[in-house]
Each structure stands twice: as structure tokens, then as C-alpha cells.
Amino acid sequence: MPDISLRRDQSLSNLDHRNTAVDFLKTFAIFGVIIIHTCGDVLTAQLFSFNWLCAVILRSLAAASVPLFFLCSGALLLDPEKELSLHKLYTKNLLRIIIALFFWAVFYKIFDLILADALTYDAVIQAVKEVLLFRHKYHLYFLQIILLVYVFLPITRVFVKHASRREWIYLIAIWGILGIVYPTVKGFWPFELLSGTPQQWMINQAYAAVGYTLLGYYLDRNPIEFRKGAGMSILGFAVVLGGTMFMTARSGTFYTGFLEGMSIGVALMAAGIFSIVKNRASWGRPYGITYLSKASFCIYLIHAAILSALREIGISPDFAPYLISVPLIAALNMALSCAVYFLLSHVPLVRKWLV
């Protein structure tokens, strides 16, 4: 049983038993995550300038990256043919995520203090307090959500094992309405007029991720046909990009609601991309894709540090139009992150617990 879609899949080390589609999706998703965080530096450009438009397009194209990881998690973790006892869940799977989360949280606190030339005793004490209160580096929220995904595994695995097709459709519909549609439209009329208990009907982001894992398992076993998947992807991208542009123009400030993982356009993109890849599993099994899939957890953890280091030495997207520079910097980041993974994966304890 793998820890999560980002983690090395030790139980599937034999390439003949790997999920080819998941390997492709994880590789696509991890590069998308790096694109998203690289775009964070350039979306502060003047609204509707050429570079800003380039950054918004790239950010929209990558919007489904994190949801894709959750979909992959469901495809791997919810297989009822693989046993998962509570003892193993809490002493192995969950423990690995907790150790990795707090190790990297401490690492980034110290790393950022060093970059800021602010490594003092008082600053370290404050950093420790923040780590204990889950005030971690921006990208580590993913691991915090994974903890919930793991806690729900005994329940979601029971549902997967016994649910009928009608029950599957019902659950996905309820999740879609309360976890995807409602969060997207809550700020628009007439939903903005709601108050009190109806506001609490919405499934928040952390718990909605559990729904993504269930959808991932379902789509893995019941993939949408290629054309419909492509149509969903295109429609989702249009909603993400169009909604972002329209609301930004309307409000006069950069609007991020349509870029969030639990929004209508992003969910359509994620389900569509997942289905497209599932329908093209005959693409083969390139070793590079398999390696990047195995390295994706480490890449996710370390890429934020590399992005900060690149920024510190003056490598920024300003050397070319953002449509070119952002992907190039993201590719450099990914290559350096892979090099770090190569080194760390040869240290047994680090490989087992941290990457």
C-alpha cells in the first residue's frame, strides 16, 4: 500500500504491476505544481499586461495539478484487493506523513531564516512554535490534507468495496454539489445572500479532497471515453481562464476563486485529464516517466526551496516573456529537484521516512 500518490510506491516496485496512467498523471501534475508556484512570482504584474496574461494562462493550464494528485491517490489507495489494517495505517502510513510533514516544516523555517539572514535564538523559538501550530511553508498544506485522507481511508475503502453503481453516482453528485459547485458560486448572487446554517452545508477544501480520492478510484475503474474527457478538459480550462479574467476585470483585483482546486472548472479539468490519460495507457512505460513518478513526492517537498534559491541568485522570469521563462524556470527547478531526490533516495532512513 503506497503512502500517497506523491510517495514512492514501494509495493508496486515491479514495473509490470505499476499503474501506467497514474505515473503519467503524477509526472504531469508535479510539473504543473512547479508552474503554479513559479507563477506566484509573476502574477503580481500589472493586470492585463502581456506578461500578466501569459502568467494567467499558464496558471490556468496547471490549475488541476493538485486535484490530479488526489485522484491518483484514490486510484492507488482505495483498491479493495489490497489489505490495509488500522495498525498498519497508523504505525506506518500515517506515521510517515507526520514525520515528513514536521521534518520539512522545520527545514523550511530554518531555510527561510537563513535566506533572510535572521537566524537568531528568538527567531528559532518562534519558528518552533509556528511549526507546532501547523503554520508551515505554503505548499505543505498538501500533507496536512493527506492526514485527513488517511484518517478516512478505513471508511472510504468500505464504501468502495460494497457500493453499487447508483450509490457511487449519488455520492459523487453530493460531493460535486456541496464540495465543488457551492464553493465556486458562494460569492455570487443569490448564494451570497445566504447566512447561518446553509453556509455550513458547503464541504471545505480539506474534506472535499476525500471526495476527489473517491472520484479517482471510480474513474480509474470506469474511465470516461477520450472525446468526453477532452471536452471536459477544454470546458474546464475555459471556465477557469474565462472566469478568472472576467472577475478580475469586474473587481479590479486579481480574482483567484476559479483557480482553486475545489472549483467547477478545475474539477472538470482534473476529471477530463485523468480520463484522457486512462484512455491512452498504451502510450507505453518510459523509464523517465516512471522515475519522475517515483520522485514526485520529493520534488513536491523540495521544489519550493529551490525556487527560493533561484530567486536569491537572481534567476527570475523577467529574462523573457513569461510564456517562455516560467516553463523554463520550472523545468530547471524540476531537474534540480530530481537531482536532490537521486541523492536523498540513496540514504535508507531518508528514503523510507522523508522522501
Highlighted features:
355 residues; mainly alpha; 0% strand; globular
Question: Which whole number gives the mean pLDDT?
Answer: 92
Low-confidence stretches: 7-15
Strand count, sense and barrel status of the largest sheet are: none
- Helices, by number, come to 14
SSE order, as H and E? Answer: HHHHHHHHHHHHHH
Describe the structure in your own words.
By secondary structure, the protein is an all-alpha fold. It has one domain (10-353). It is built from 14 helices and no strands. It has helices at 20-39, 50-61, 65-77, 86-115, 121-132, 141-162, 165-185, 197-200, 205-221, 226-251, 264-278, 287-312, 322-344, 348-353. The longest helix is centred in the N-terminal third of the chain and has 30 residues, at 86-115. The radius of gyration is 20 Å and the shape is globular. The model is unreliable at 7-15 (pLDDT under 50).
What's the arrangement of secondary structure elements?
Layout: H1 20-39, H2 50-61, H3 65-77, H4 86-115, H5 121-132, H6 141-162, H7 165-185, H8 197-200, H9 205-221, H10 226-251, H11 264-278, H12 287-312, H13 322-344, H14 348-353
Short characterization:
Helix 3 packs across helix 11, helix 4 (86-115) packs antiparallel against helix 6 (141-162) and helix 12 (287-312) crosses helix 13 (322-344). 70% of the residues lie in helices and 0% in strands.
